[in-house]
Structure formats: structure tokens, C-alpha cells
Specification:
The protein is globular, with a radius of gyration of 22 Å. The chain folds into two domains: 271 residues, Carbamate kinase, CATH 3.40.1160.10; 93 residues, Roll (Archaeosine Trna-guanine Transglycosylase, Chain: A, domain 4). It contains 15 helices and 15 strands. Bound molecules: glutamic acid.
């Protein structure tokens, strides 16, 4: 039983592969309906659910007379197929979710959107708002506009980045295979399903060295890369067969199916490392004693009321030093507001942000999760 492993999960990203919800003729509406039924049950159990769904290309390609694997289709045709198929895909989810009184929202992303910190934070805020309102976000790559340089390339990668974006505790990759095998089960009858992976070692990576099926873009290799990324960010990752009806629920019921990758032991390490060492600070915030204590000793986020002075010119998404009244740095973090905005809201109550600026990006100037205490000692 895996119940213990999933006990801490509240927010989950579910990646649905093309091979799960489409066949050579296009979308398989019944499979989408069954999955949405499970999504509804998960929501009733109190989970927040974000879907990352492929199959736009699969849903649209027949209209262009295309047959064959997606990676053999030239990019312009693939993009045209996605333009046809994406609305079909959303329509299918919308209809299926409506049966359960649920609403869907479409979010199309490019890798560029997540590499740019401001757009990253905006995408995050939009997703959080949707979740707050009980809507089911359905994400796909914005296939029609991407060029090679800014492509995620496959939705496995996109789902791992989404897991980090929304800080989900679990990524479930629904595939048309049962999980990770010790070798390719299509060629080796002795291949064994690996039920649990504690760490993705080169030996584990070697097991995935075979191609995927004809409908999706990624094979086991891209799934493993996604698992590696997600587990590093602290989310457990399950790869299970999504074509078996209600497998998603069985996973949450605690049944041992597919392959489960345990989260890395020091999950925040990568992110903190990024903030502490990669981001160059562009400014300085001087905090009053109360805010200094709240942040450094009580694990709180920084609110505008605790800032008494600022230094430097910086943008939303830049790193700033947090200093005490003597000007000594005790933390570093990523700011939600730029220096012009902060100049107007520092020392003010959270409630006043919107009154003063006419908008707001959230209560926190620096959210706890985007902060490292004593960055030079980490
Ligand atoms: N974004 C592509 C689609 O919706 C799928 C990419 C993938 O298969 O990973 O068709």
C-alpha cells in the first residue's frame, strides 16, 4: 500500500498523454469522460487538481490528412494540427467536466513563459486564482506559436515544470504503458515493472532507453527526466497506465501500481540554490525589528508593513537582499513588486496595496517560498 507516501498530498498535477486519450482516429471521448469522473472524485476528496493534457495534435491531424507519429510530422503541419485540435480537446474536457458540475480553464504555455520570472509569477497567480475558484486548469504547450528554441518539446517536461510552478506535492504521469520496466517489455518477456525508485541513478536511466508509442511525443526517457525534475523540487512522481479505467483513483486509494519515484530528501535545495547563488540581488530592503524577527525566526513571508527603507532599482521577479536596521543582510528573496511600487506601499498595510497601486500581485512582498535565510551560510 502506498497511502503513507501520498498522505501529505494536497495539490496534484496530472499529465495525460496523447496515447491515453486518443487513437489513430482522434480523441477517445469515453476515456476523457472516465478521467474527468476520477478528477471529480479527487476534488471531492479535497485534492486540488491541475491537468496537463496532450493530444491537440492527435485531435487535429486527421483533418490535414496526416497519419504517423507526431515526431515524424514536420513542425508547421504539427502546429496547424494543434490549432485545429486544441479547441476540440478543450471542448471534450469541458463537456466531460460539466457532467460533474466542474468548469475547465485553458492555459497555453511556452518555455519562454516560465523562464521569464515575471511571466512565471503571473502564470502562477492565474493558476492559483483558478484553483481558488474551484476551476480545473488544463495546460498544454502553446504548440501553434512555439519555435524550437522556446519549446518544452514534450508535455512530460511541461508537467514537471508545472509541478514546480504550482508547488504540487505529486505529479502523476498517465501513460499508455504500466510504468518503468527493467528493460523494454515489448522485446523482453523477462522485463520487470519497477515499483519504487528512491533515486534516479544512471542504472535507472539506462532502463528507459527505449522509444515511446506512436501517438505521443515522449517515451520513457522524457518521463524519467520529468520525474527527475519533479522529485528534485520535492514532489513524488507516479507513472501509471492511464488507459486502464480508474487507475488514477486506484493510485489514490493506495494501490501499488505503476512506478513511484520518491521526492528528493532535501527538496528545496534546488530552488534555494537558485535564489541564493544564481540570482544576482538588484536591491536592498531594510526591515524593522518586528519584520526582521518574523522573517528570520518565525518563518513568515515579508509584508509591505515591515519595510522601512529601500535601496536600488529593481523589477518584479528580481532578487533583493533583506537587511536589518543596521543594514546587515540576513536573507535574500525574490520580490513580487518592483522598486517604484514598493516605494509607494512600504510601511503600509496589506489591505492598502490595491488602494494605492490600483492592483496587487499578492499580500507578500517576498513570499516565504521564494526566500533563503542566511544565503551566505547555506
Ligand atoms: N502538445 C502536444 C499536443 O497536445 C503534445 C506533446 C507531447 O505529446 O508530449 O498534441
Amino acid at each position: 500500500m502506498r497511502t503513507i507516501l501520498l498522505a501529505h498530498v494536497k495539490r496534484v498535477v496530472i499529465k495525460i498523454g496523447s496515447g491515453v486519450i486518443s487513437d489513430k482516429d482522434g480523441l477517445e471521448l469515453e476515456r476523457i469522460a472516465t478521467l474527468c469522473e476520477d478528477v471529480h472524485t479527487l476534488r471531492q476528496r479535497g485534492y486540488e487538481v491541475i491537468l496537463v493534457s496532450s493530444a491537440a495534435v492527435a485531435a487535429g491531424k486527421a483533418d490535414l490528412g496526416i497519419v504517423g507519429k507526431p515526431h515524424t510530422i514536420p513542425l508547421p503541419l504539427k502546429q496547424a494540427a494543434a490549432a485545429i485540435g486544441q479547441s476540440r480537446l478543450m471542448r471534450a474536457y469541458k463537456d466531460a467536466l460539466r457532467q460533474h458540475g466542474l468548469k475547465a480553464a485553458q492555459i497555453l504555455l511556452t518555455r519562454d513563459d516560465l523562464a521569464n520570472r515575471r511571466r512565471y509569477l503571473n502564470a502562477r497567480n492565474t493558476l492559483m486564482t483558478l484553483l481558488e475558484y474551484g476551476i480545473v486548469p488544463i495546460i498544454n504547450e502553446n504548440d501553434t506559436v512555439v519555435i524550437d528554441e522556446i519549446r518544452f518539446g514534450d508535455n512530460d517536461n511541461l508537467s514537471a515544470m508545472t509541478t514546480n510552478l504550482v508547488e504540487a506535492q505529486l505529479l502523476v504521469i498517465l501513460s499508455d504503458v504500466d510504468g518503468l520496466y527493467s528493460s523494454d517489455p515489448r522485446h523482453n518477456p523477462d522485463a520487470k515493472l519497477i515499483s519504487e525508485v528512491e533515486r534516479i541513478t544512471p542504472e535507472i536511466e539506462a532502463m528507459a532507453g527505449h522509444e515511446g508509442t506512436s501517438l505521443g511525443t515522449g517515451g520513457m526517457t522524457t518521463k524519467l527526466k520529468a520525474a527527475k525534475r519533479a522529485t528534485l523540487y520535492g514532489a513524488g512522481t507516479a507513472i501509471i497506465n492511464g488507459r486502464t479505467p480508474h487507475n488514477l483513483l486506484y493510485l489514490f486509494d493506495g494501490h501499488e501500481l505503476g512506478t513511484y519515484f520518491l521526492p528528493a530528501r532535501d527538496p528545496m535545495a534546488a530552488r534555494k540554490h537558485w535564489i541564493a547563488f544564481t540570482k544576482k540581488p538588484k536591491g536592498k530592503l531594510i526591515l524593522d525589528d518586528g519584520a526582521h524577527k518574523a522573517v528570520s525566526e518565525r518563518g513568515k513571508s515579508l509584508l509591505p508593513s515591515g519595510i522601512c527603507q529601500l535601496d536600488g532599482s529593481f523589477e518584479r521577479g528580481d532578487a533583493v537582499r533583506l537587511c536589518d536596521l543596521n543594514g546587515d543582510e540576513f536573507a535574500k528573496g525574490v520580490t513580487n513588486y518592483n522598486s517604484t511600487e514598493l516605494d509607494r506601499i512600504m510601511g503600509k498595510k496589506t489591505k492598502e496595496i490595491e488602494l494605492i497601486l490600483g492592483y496587487q500581485y499578492g499580500d507578500e512582498v517576498v513570499h516565504r517560498d521564494n526566500m533563503v535565510i542566511n544565503p551566505n551560510k547555506e
